[in-house]
Design goal:
The complex is a heterodimer of chains A (about 600) and B (about 250). With about 600 residues, chain A is mainly alpha-helical. In chain A, about 75% of the residues lie in helices and about 0% in strands. Chain A has 2 domains: about 260 residues, no CATH class; about 250 residues, no CATH class. Chain A has 24 helices and no strands. A 6-stranded mixed sheet of chain B has the order 6-7-8-3-9-10, with helices on both faces. The longest helix of chain B has 18 residues. Classes of the chains: A mainly alpha (about 600), B alpha/beta (about 250).
Chain lengths: ~600, ~250
């Protein structure tokens, strides 16, 4: 044996530190992921690139137009823009907190690299530091991507100096540290006291409470036409009152917004002050958890891997589990059929193998709380907004506005669905992973498995999207023809979006990865999202342009049934093509897949 | 070299490891056998410091795994049944990375690699991404990286999973050679013939306890069997199941 190991107690070594080694490994891995793009189709890369650039350009255009419009409001433009900025950063701070909490928990306690590192002579403090940095970046990159066009537009509207833009980058880098710190600290603390199920229940409860708080905070207040005509300032004052929370000076979002705003106005001293406040907090709390949370992380990791279920400790749950075991005639401890088996077995419509697959997918979705919690959050917020529309029927009495809002609602619903199908439906086939041999070799066959996933996902999501669009039509008081038009359109879109996700999921499977987030972040997932968004954009515009209700603001355009019908037919054909092609290619690949 | 003292681990109400005490001296090849849920993997996790014992202690080369984790971990290597590897790295980059984490100099890394890489027939794969390697090749990469710093204690869970007979033979030979040179091996396996062939001593785990420990011959004598170690293993574990049933324990 060669004695290559120096005494670690001395820890005197000139080589790179473990943290730097991990950083280097991550950089190499990321670079190779980028290089691997060369192996993808140039056409698809061009589509994705165009989409990304298009998003940035479109978002910038919308923000720029919107900010210019608001800033021209007589006497109050500056105030409104300022409040908008503060509210936006406050909301983004809240979203970053949730995102950091979920990602930190997964990254610290449900990650194979963490387990690997814990078995090596790497201090737990270093492992924690590494995972903290990784989680913060993972949770925040989308935020930077979203906010960049807004800040550019804000800078242009306010005619800022060139140094505003690099400064904003620095401020953003500081801003993401604090939610990262809070998320990491909260995940370690919660992991010490709650098991996975308890954590999920708390997370969902927190999200529900957050939605409830938002409903209360932003509850609509009736505004009469007289108010709008004669007392605009009073109405705006009420609006500003509801958003005053964003001006609470101890919120990090306040420091960020204040720094951005002051710098744009040339008040460099005040801007620097708020930037330094943010820097000092980021340094203090960042340093604190980076130097002190390692042992707590190890303790939490040990508890996560050592405890029985939280609920199983309570008598009621123990009794319930005992009741579920073995019917009176069974000698084996087999659970009885539950409500899902009973439901799916109703009428004997579904074949046993189909029923088994559907039940498996439904159970897996239900037991992964993070999946349905995010879904519920996305569609819950949309539902709250649509329900609130009933308060604005007086303002939405023009056919143009009614039609515009209906189209926007349908578009928003479809966009929500696209994120849902990309996040949850796309990785379904890949998630079979090492289990794919089971269904692949079963008499049911992989092709039918993919079809089943398509139908199950389509009908499940249709219940939500159709429900929301019908609710929107009801709240807006639309007649039966309008309702049928929007209902039919969103139904077509739902099936198309699911076909895109299922088809591309089968076409670009990743059987090695068990983390759905990482499967989605690959080329196939990105392409799925891009294709879905492009389809929605084209589809909604096509429908709106030819709609007899939508395009002419003054409703002077004559109703042309032939034009409307033909455009709807084109929309259906486009949808069929957009969904059929990926699904067909995916099925063909699945049929020839070698397990 | 390995000292487990009254090691206990609870998972909620479940007592997964129930007071294990064991000493494995320097250079011994110790194999752990046992049915599923016998506490083998939990014991290994406590031994390498992945989880804390509820009570008791584990020491590696004289260092307590919980109170002196860095000292203990720098003297041991652990290869799980499905080891984690960075998919985007090449085997050579991974091996070098692991050596650096163990604070080896570049010269020592190269010296160790020069010896191990040809032994495990990794030359062909050395600069190809790990993501494209078969399970067996990945397993060989993990074992190479783990042996690189010449650990004093080598802990391995199901080492033969995915290995073809040729490479399984090489792994067995290398581990045996290292054991003869003084490395302590603590191996968990379900392949009883591997334990029979390799182990200086075998410990049979059952319901969180070591119910029998000794050389393969001693276990055969205790069970009153001859021939394959499998017979002795089955006889001993069945006897334990009968004892548990007689005592009213749930099987």
């Amino acid at each position: 044996m060669n004695a290559a190991v120096p005494n670690p107690a001395a820890l005197v070594f000139a080589g790179p530190t473990p943290f730097r080694l991990l950083l280097r490994i991550a950089a190499i891995s990321s670079w190779r992921r980028l290089l691997a793009l060369r192996e993808q189709s140039w056409f698809l890369l061009a589509v994705i690139g165009t989409f990304l650039v298009g998003y940035l350009g479109l978002a910038f255009g919308l923000f720029y137009g919107g900010l210019r419009f608001i800033s021209k409001f007589p006497g109050l433009g500056g105030l409104l823009v300022e409040r908008l900025l503060f509210v936006l950063f406050a909301f983004l701070f809240g979203l970053l907190l949730i995102s950091n909490l979920v990602i930190s928990y997964t990254n610290l306690f449900k990650n194979r690299e963490t387990t690997f590192l814990l078995s090596l002579p790497v201090p737990t403090q270093t492992i924690f530091q590494w995972k903290f940095v990784e989680s913060t970046l993972l949770a925040s990159w989308a935020f930077v991507f979203l906010i960049a066009p807004l800040l550019c537009a804000y800078g242009l509207v306010n005619h800022v100096a060139w140094h505003f833009y690099p400064l904003v980058l620095v401020l953003l880098a500081l801003f993401i540290v604090l939610p990262g710190v809070c998320g990491a600290w909260a995940s370690v603390t919660l992991a010490r006291f709650l098991d996975r199920k308890g954590f999920q229940v708390l997370l969902v409860t927190g999200l529900v409470a957050l939605v409830a708080l938002m409903i209360f905070q932003f509850r609509p207040q009736p505004v009469t036409d007289e108010d709008l005509d004669a007392r605009v300032l009073a109405v705006i004052d009420r609006l500003l009152e509801n958003t005053r929370f964003a001006n609470f000076p101890f919120l990090p979002s306040y420091w960020m917004s204040a720094s951005v705003q002051n710098w744009s106005e040339g008040a460099l001293g005040a801007a620097t002050f708020f930037a330094l406040v943010m820097l000092s907090h980021a340094l203090f709390f960042g340093q604190l958890i980076c130097q002190r949370l390692g042992p707590a992380f190890y303790e939490a990791s040990n508890r996560v891997n050592s405890r029985g279920g939280l609920f199983e400790r309570w008598g009621w749950f123990q009794a319930r589990a005992a009741r579920q075991i073995a019917g009176p005639h069974s000698r084996l401890p087999l659970p009885r059929s539950d409500w899902l088996d009973t439901l799916l077995g109703c009428g004997g419509v579904l074949a046993p193998d189909t029923r088994a697959l559907v039940a498996k997918d439904m159970r897996m979705f239900w037991r992964d709380t993070t999946q349905w919690a995010q879904t519920a959050m996305l569609f819950g917020l949309l539902g709250v907004y649509i329900i609130n529309l009933r308060h604005f029927t007086r303002q939405l009495d023009s056919p143009f506005w009614l039609s515009l809002v209906s189209f926007l609602n349908m578009g928003a619903c479809a966009l929500n669905l696209a994120t849902l199908t990309t996040r949850f439906v796309f990785p379904q086939f890949s998630l079979e992973g090492r289990r794919v041999w089971l269904v692949g070799l079963a008499p049911i066959g992989l092709v039918r498995v993919v079809w089943l996933k398509f139908w199950l996902a389509s009908f499940a999501t249709l219940a939500v999207t159709l429900g929301l669009v019908l609710l929107s039509c009801t709240m807006l008081g639309l007649d039966a023809v309008h309702t049928a038009f929007f209902g039919g359109s969103v139904t077509v879109m739902t099936f198309t979006l699911n076909a895109i996700a299922v088809g591309l999921g089968a076409l670009y499977p990743n059987f090695r990865e068990t983390n759905p987030n990482k499967i989605v972040s690959g080329f196939g997932g990105t392409f799925c999202l891009v294709l879905s968004f492009v389809y929605i954009l084209v589809g909604v515009v096509l429908l709106a342009v030819s709609s007899p209700w939508g395009w002419k603001p003054d409703m002077t355009g004559e109703f042309a049934p032939a034009k409307a019908v033909s455009s709807w037919v084109i929309f259906v054909l486009l949808s069929y093509l957009a969904g059929w092609l990926p699904l067909r290619l995916g099925l063909r690949k699945v049929a020839t897949t070698e397990l | 070299m390995i000292e487990l003292h009254e090691l206990v681990k609870h998972f909620g109400d479940v007592r997964a490891v129930d007071g294990i005490s064991l000493t494995v001296p320097r250079g011994e090849f110790f194999c752990v056998l046992g049915p599923n849920a016998a506490g083998k993997t939990t014991t290994i996790k406590m031994l390498v410091g992945l989880i804390k014992p509820t009570s008791g202690s584990a020491r590696v080369a004289g260092f307590d795994v919980q109170t002196q984790p860095l000292e203990a971990r720098s003297r041991l290597s652990f290869v799980p049944d499905f080891p984690f590897l960075y998919d985007k790295l090449t085997p050579w980059e991974f091996i070098r990375f692991t050596g650096q984490l163990f604070r080896m100099s570049d010269a020592d890394i190269r010296r160790g690699a020069d010896e191990l890489i040809p032994r495990f027939s990794l030359q062909e794969w050395l600069h190809k991404p790990i993501e494209g390697l078969s399970h067996g090749t990945r397993q060989r990469v993990a074992i190479t990286a783990a042996l690189l710093h010449s650990p004093e204690v080598f802990v391995i869970d199901e080492p033969m999973v995915g290995l073809d007979p040729h490479h399984a033979r090489i792994v067995k030979d290398v581990l045996k050679e290292r054991a003869l040179q003084g490395m302590t091996v603590f191996m968990s396996t379900h392949q009883i013939y591997v334990a029979d062939e390799m182990a200086d001593r075998v410990g049979i785990f059952h319901r969180g306890r070591i119910v029998a420990a000794g050389t393969p011959e001693e276990l055969r004598r205790r069970a009153g069997t001859d021939g394959a170690l499998e017979k002795a293993f089955l006889a001993i574990t069945e006897e334990e199941v009968r004892t548990d049933s007689a005592n009213g324990a749930v099987p």
